[in-house]
Amino acid sequence: MRVAAIDVGTNSVHLLVVDIDSRGEVSIVEKARRQVELGRGGSGMERIAPAAFRRGLEAIGAFAAAVRSLEVDHVTAAATSAVREAANGKEFRDTVKEQTGIHVRVISGLEEARLVYLGVRSDLDFASGPAMLLDLGGGSLEWVLACPSPADNPASGLLASGTLPLGHIRLSSSLLTTDPISSDEISTVRREVSAHSEALIAAARQHGVGTVVGTSGAIRTLARMATLARGEPRPAQRHGILMSTDELGELVERMTGRKRSWLDDLPGMDPRRRHTLPAAAVVTHAVLECLGAAGLVTSGRSLRDGLIQDWILQNGGVISRRDGATGPRDRAVLAVIERFGVELSHAEQVVRFATALFDGTRELHDLGDDDRLLLQHAARLHDVGHHIAGEDHNRHGEYLLRHTPLYGFTAPEIEVLCQLVRYHRGSLPKRRHSAYGSLPRVDRRRVRILAGMLRLADALDRSHNQPISNLTVEYSEGALLVRAVAGAPAHLERWAADRRHTLLSNALDIEVSVRVENPPAPR
Q1: I need a surface site. Which of 154, 202, 296, 325 has the fewest CB within 10 A?
Q2: Is residue 14 part of a domain?
């Protein structure tokens, strides 16, 4: 079944076309965005201005043509605050229906929050407690506080939700009108946030907040700018980008201290957002301060993904069979394995050996359980580059992971994961390698140690026939002995291990030797 979702927002119109199989699994066919700013240029949010009306019709018309050419079976479309509040909103929807044949339903703020939650929920990590979702649109800010829930009853995970009239276009038109923005106007917006956030704060205090997740394009742009401001490379993906509240506060100062026409000089700035992004920064920063949150992480999903998931639920499906996995990172890894045809028997053998090496050297590396899990994920994905070609498959794997959605991982985790796959074979990590060299010092150390374990673990199943039945690690007198017991001939494994323990030895600054032995003869 091919289904399309069209999200008619205050700032942009989004299209998402997916294929849905019998298990409820979703594969993306097409994604598109048109910035139309339905909430800008009229009388506040009271009417859709003629130019915006025309831009909205053109965008939906183009998406309708795409839907027809892609032979979509069903279209679900929803409009949010700009159309909901406009006096000519019904006229706009009627014109869309007449010209394109697409019925656009108007949804409430609470329904919008529910749909955002449905779209994002499978990627949420509840390890540290409930997740607070913030979806900042042009007309309103939707918030959702969520906890784990079964796939067949996602509503049970929605602890509280609300909608606040604090969208970045709305505020740019009504409260933040000076250029540069004055400190008095910023104070006014902060008071507005406090005045409207009672329910949000009460829910946070009652249930606690483990992670704050930003799901909108405006928040993702701010997080990208914060990443570049701290000297890190531009994130390759839209999800998993980290931004601290302090970093956002610094962005507020930089963005409101200059004219909007000068904002394009800021690294990561989207010129299409220069007029309203300062408002987005002020509002998001104020909300994070109200929550007492240290920062947030972005999600690449949003309302249009929720429209798809809601359609699946309404039509007797399930969110995803991957919900049976233990967490969002496991689901993301499973999706990559299924998509690119990873050889599971070899991958799981490498997971076993890499884990044994990690556990057997804890006193030497002082890495934590999060690093252990990241190593296991890398072990499952290290050969993903074979999907492109066997030669240089480590480099191909790095490329695929950097350009494949890995929902649930943060951007720094994705970069470390890419480097582990890159260096599981081939040349050793070097500072002159651009991606590795741009990592923070602590992450370069993680990569050297974990990649050293991964390349040795991979060598111990070089034949992909799993001849090694058991692996032990012994440390004494400043030397590390890796003892591998073979239940079958392991000539390739012995040969490969002799050549691929150098990185681990260098990373741990210790002599490493590998002994491949036959099992003891039965007595």
Answers
A1: 202
A2: yes
Q: Is residue 317 part of a domain?
A: no
Return d(Cα 9, Cα 224) in angstroms, integer: 22
The strand pairing partners of 5, in sequence order, are: 16, 76
Residue-wise pLDDT tens digits, 275-291: 999 999 999 999 999 99
pLDDT of 53 above 50:
yes
Cis preceding-peptide flag for 180 (omega within 30 of 0): yes
User: Residue 29: which domain range?
Assistant: 2-107
Domain edge (last residue) among 86, 107, 128:
107
Q: Which residue has the higher pLDDT, 233 or 397?
A: 397
Closest CA to 375 of 451, 437, 307: 451
What are the phi and psi torsion angles at 20 (to 5°)? Answer: -120, 125
Residue indicated by tokens 């929550």 = 291
Helix 245-256 / helix 217-229 crossing angle, nearest 10 deg: 90
The verdict on 6 and 141 lying in the same domain is no
pLDDT tens digits, 1-38: 899 999 999 889 999 999 988 777 888 999 999 999 88
Q: Which of 85, 107, 129 is the last residue of a domain?
A: 107
Looking at the fold, whether 334 and 185 belong to one and the same domain comes out as: no
- Helices (H), ranges, 102-216: 109-120, 168-174, 183-196, 198-207
Distance CA 121, CA 232 (A): 28
pLDDT at 517: 86
Say whether both 93 and 124 belong to one domain: no
Query: What order do you get walking across the sheet with 158-164 strand by strand?
Result: 158-164, 141-146, 131-136, 211-214, 295-298, 242-244
Report how many domains make up the chain: 3
Q: Which of 259-263, 357-361, 369-373 has the lowest mean pLDDT?
A: 259-263
Give the chain's end-to-end CA distance (angstroms, integer): 62
Q: What does 398-432 look like in DSSP terms, one character per residue?
A: HHHHHTS--TTS-HHHHHHHHHHHHTSSSSPP-TT
Based on the fold, state whether residues 283 and 425 are members of the same structural domain: no
| Token digits of residue 125 | 């990590």
Strand partners, 12: 35
Checking if the pLDDT of 318 tops 60, the result is: no
Residue 523 domain-assigned? no
Give me the phi and psi of 30, to 5 degrees please: -155, 145
Calpha distance 396→464 (Å, rounded): 20
Same domain, 211 and 272: yes
Nearest to 328 by CA among 308, 353, 303, 301: 301
